[in-house]
Amino acid sequence: SELKKASKRLTCHKRYKIQKKIREHHRKVRKEAKKRGRKKPKKDPGVPSAAPFKEELLREAEQRKQRLEELKQKQKLQRQKEHEKRRKLETKKNAAKTKEKAEGKESSSKSKAKTKKMLDKNSKESFCRELKKVIEASDVVLEVLDARDPMGCRCPQLEQAVTCSGGNKKLLLVLNKIDLVPKENLEKWLNYLKKEFPTVAFKSATLMKDKTMEQFTKRPARVDLSRTTEYFGSKCLLKLLQEHGRTQNKPIQVGVVGFPNVGKSSIINSLKGVRACNVGLTRGVTKSMQIVHIDKQTKMLDSPSLIADPSNSALALALRSVIDTEESNSADVLEGADTILNHCSKQQVMMRYCIPDFRNTEEFLSLLAQKRGMLKKGGVPDIENIAKVLLCDWTGAKISYHSQPPESQSPPPYLTDDKIAEMQEGFNLKHLEEGNNATVQALKYPSPSSSIIFQSAGMTNGVIEENKVIEEASEWENMETSKEGEEEEKEDFTESDDDDQDDVEEEEKDVTEYCSTCIGFTNQFSFLSSEKEHSDSLSVSLDKTADEDDAYDFNTDYV
C-alpha cells in the first residue's frame, strides 16, 4: 500500500488563529509604511521647449543612447566569445584525459619517475644514501642501542661495514635509555657488550630547551622534569671522544647511527646541552645528515634511521622498521602489537596496564581502548588507534621492559680478536669503566618486578647499500606523490558582467546630468532636476511557520 500524502486540513481553531496573526501582521506593515511615507518617483520632464539649443541637446542624447546600445552589444558578443573559448578548452581537456587513459598514462609514469628522484627525501633509498655519507665522513661511529633490547638494536651489516672499512675508523656502542631497565640487568649488558666493543652507558634528555625559544611565564605543566631534562653519561662520552681526538692530532667527526627511536638525536642534544636536532615519537624524524658542532675538536653527524631488512622476524619489523604508525596499514599495526604481546609475560602485561585476563590480542586491545576512553561512534573500541598507541609506548621511553643477554659470549664471524683489539685501540678503557660506574650509581632504576621480561629476537638485519633497497609502496611516507604531469595552462577568464553594468550605469548618469545642466541655462523656467529619485521599496520578510504538523505559507491571505 502506497503512503498517502499528509492532509492539509486544519482545525478551525488553528485556521482562525493563523488568519488573525496575518491580519495583525498586515496592519503592522501598513502602519510602518504610513509612518515612513510613500514617495512616488518623480517623472523626468525632459528638455523644455523654450530651452536654447534644444535640437542639438536632443541629438546628442540620441547619440549617447546609440553608443550605449552599441557598447551593450559589444559586451554581449565578447561574453559569447569567451564562453566559446571556454567550451573549446574543456573539450580539449576532456579529449586529452581520455587519450591519457587509453594510452595507459605513459606521460604520468614518466613524470612520476622524475618527481621520485626529486621527492625521495622520505624514501628508503634516500635514508641509505644519507647513512652511507655519515659512515664515510665519520672517524668514530656511535651505534646507539636501546638498553631494553640491546641485541635487537644491533645491526651486523653496519658493524661489518665499519670494522672492515679500514682507515682507522672506530665503532662505539652507546647503551641509551638505561633508566628503563633494572640495575642488575644493565650491569649484565655492559659486561657482555664491552667484550666486543667499547660501550658507554647513557641516559639522554628527552626534553631540551631551544636556543631561539623565548621563555614564557606560563603556569608550568605537570611534567616529571627529573626524567625529561636530566641526562647522564654525557661527560664520560665527551671525555672519551676528546681523548681519542688528541691521539689522532686532528678534529674528529663522530657519526651517530642506529634503528628508529633509539635516541640518536636526543644523545646529540644532550651532548650539546640545547635542542640542536629535532626529536619526536614518530619514526624517521631525521631525514638527512645534520652536522652539530660540540666544540672546536668534535663534530657530531646525525643520520637517518637504519632500514630493517624485510626478511627479519615480525617482532624486529614491529619495533625497528621505519614505519609511521599514523599512516601505516591497520593490518601491519595489529600484527606488530600481536607479536610484541606474544614475546612478553601475560601476567606482567596485565599488571602494567591494569587490565583483566584476556584470551587474545584483539580482546586485550579492546579492553585497553575502553580503559583509556578510545571509542568510536556507538561505544565501539577503536582497536586500530590503540594498537598504534601501544607501538609508540614500546618504542618510546614509556614502558619499562628488559631482555636477558645471551648465556655464552659468541662474537659474530666478522668480529675477530684482532678486530676487537683494533676497535679498543685509542680509547682509555679504564676511564670509560669509571665513568660508566658513576653513571650507573647516579640513576634511579625500576624494580625487577615492575619491569616486563621481554624475549629478544636477536640481531636485526639492516640494509645499508642503496642498490639493495627494493622500493615498496611504503605506508610510512609523509609526503604525497606528485600529481600527474603538467597540464595545459588554461586562460583565466573572469565574468565582466558587473564591470559592464557599472559602465552602462555611468553612461546613463552622464546623459541625465547633461540634460539637467542644459535646463539650468534658462532662468525663466524653474524645473525640477532631472536626476531620478527612487523610493525605497518596501521589503517585508515573511517567515514561514515551523510547526511540525504543517507548513503554512504566510504570503496567502486567508480572510
Automatic annotation (TrEMBL):
Region (Disordered): 1-120, 470-512, 536-559
Keywords, sorted A to Z: Coiled coil, GTP-binding, Nucleotide-binding, Nucleus
Compositionally biased intervals (Acidic residues): 485-510
Record InterPro entries: G_CP_dom (IPR030378), Gnl3_N_dom (IPR014813), GTP-bd (IPR006073), GTP-bd_ortho_bundle_sf (IPR023179), P-loop_NTPase (IPR027417), TRAFAC_YlqF/YawG_RiboMat (IPR050755)
Localization annotation: Nucleus, Nucleolus
Biased composition regions of type Basic and acidic residues, renumbered to the chain: 53-83, 91-109
Protein name, UniProt field: Guanine nucleotide-binding protein-like 3
Source organism: Baryphthengus martii
